[in-house]
Design brief:
Elements (H helix, E strand, L loop, with lengths): L1 E4 L19 H9 L15 H7 L11 H6 L2 E3 L6 E3 L5 E3 L7 H8 L4 H7 L1 H33 L6 H12 L2 H8 L4 H15 L6 H18 L9 H33 L19 H10 L34 E4 L4 E3 L19 E4 L3
Antiparallel strand pairs: 1-4, 2-3, 3-4, 5-6, 5-7
Helix pairs in contact: 4-5, 7-9, 9-10
GO molecular function, one term: cysteine-type endopeptidase inhibitor activity involved in apoptotic process
Keywords: Coiled coil, Metal-binding, Zinc, Zinc-finger
Protein name: RING-type domain-containing protein
């Protein structure tokens, strides 16, 4: 007996012949993976026992179970070969043997059929399913062993270096090896490629082009290294070095940015463009000569004095002088326009503390 399928009588084992009550492991996996648990009869016309009996009128298979066993197991005859179908789950089976049990085979091949499960009972149902799983595991293991055996039969048996040398010598006489010699490949390179291939793969190159590529890579490596150990580049180590250099560069840039930001914050300078600010207004032109005169009277020797430490910033002054931090800024530098100092400290600077541009004059700003 062999399984077919569900619903529309899809024959799973149509190519299987003979009185064989087993199904291939792959076939059973296909059936089980596509199972649909029926909740109503797929063929309600054959729900009644007399109608299932009537379907076997033209049944002619002698080497098979009895019609009573088929009908009791829920099957009706489809009229084709010896294919029978369950009225409830729609699963179909064929290739019956005289020793097959329709109820057991029904439960084994279509485990989700509610009629078959109820018919055989819980204990027998569990026994059948466990036996079926064991059988399929044995079949899968046998198929795996057969596949491994085929793969092993294709690999070369190289028990020692003497055998390897003999096999390599034979392959150096092949036309493909001679052609590589004609293309100016060294004999040592071709020999090394054959040795590595047979030692690691236990098999020949798949094609002549594979041997050519292997020889080309090996010869280029030898020419690049040129007998010098320092020329050997290991990709993983080289990549790690590149990452370390990039990390150091990022760390250096980060430190530079932090220092610049700290210097900017400590000066607490507010950059103001006088020409574009609407919150400030210039003094009259009459006050400009006076400020210029005050700037010219600054003692130049003061620039050579040792700078005194700046007093601490007074947090109560919102716009403190950049020099003394005690009074509000009142003087804007000309021509840059930066508002930097109070009136008292204007005489102590010659260039703008912000842009370092030379100060030509000051403009008093009233806020």
């Amino acid at each position: 007996m062999n399984g077919i399928g569900t619903s529309s009588v899809v024959i799973v084992n149509d190519n299987v012949a003979g009185n064989n009550s087993t199904i291939e492991a792959g076939t059973m996996d296909l059936v089980h993976s596509n199972e649909i648990v029926p909740t109503v009869a797929c063929h309600p016309d054959y729900s009644e026992v007399p109608k299932r009996y009537a379907s076997f009128t033209n049944w002619s298979s002698e080497a098979s179970p009895t019609i009573d066993e088929f009908v009791r197991a829920g099957f009706f005859y489809t009229g084709s070969k010896n294919i029978v179908t369950c009225f409830y789950c729609g699963g179909s089976l064929q290739n019956w043997g005289v020793n097959d049990n329709p109820m057991v085979e029904h439960t084994r091949c279509f485990s989700n059929c509610g009629y078959a499960k109820k018919l055989c009972g819980d204990e027998l149902y569990r026994t059948i399913q466990e036996s079926n799983r064991t059988l399929q595991e044995l079949k899968r293991e046998a198929a795996k062993n057969a596949s491994n055996l085929r793969e092993n039969s294709l690999t070369l048996q190289i028990p020692d270096e003497a055998t390897l040398s003999r096999l390599v010598a034979a392959r150096l006489d092949l036309p493909v090896s001679q052609r590589l010699l004609d293309q100016n490949f060294k004999l040592s390179v071709i020999k090394r490629c054959w040795e590595d291939q047979l030692r690691l793969k236990r098999n020949d190159f798949v094609s002549d082009s594979d041997l050519f590529v292997a020889c080309l890579i090996l010869q280029n490596q030898i020419e690049y290294i040129n007998g010098k150990k320092e020329n050997i580049k290991i990709p993983s180590i080289e990549i790690r070095k590149i990452h370390e250099i990039q990390q150091q560069q990022r760390s250096g840039n980060s430190d530079t940015s932090s220092s610049a930001a700290a210097s900017s914050n400590s000066s607490d300078v507010e950059m103001v463009d006088i020409s574009s600010s609407s919150t400030f207004r210039k003094t009259t032109e009459a006050s400009v000569p006076k400020i210029i005169q005050e700037a010219d009277s600054i003692n130049t020797s003061s620039t050579n004095q040792v700078p005194q430490p700046k007093p601490p910033l007074d947090p109560t002054i919102p716009n403190a002088c950049i020099v003394c931090h005690r009074e509000e800024k009142r003087l804007a530098c000309i021509p840059c326009g930066h508002l930097v100092t109070c009136t008292s400290c204007g005489n102590s600077i010659r260039s703008c503390p912000i842009c370092r541009r030379e100060i030509e004059a000051f403009v008093r700003i009233y806020i």
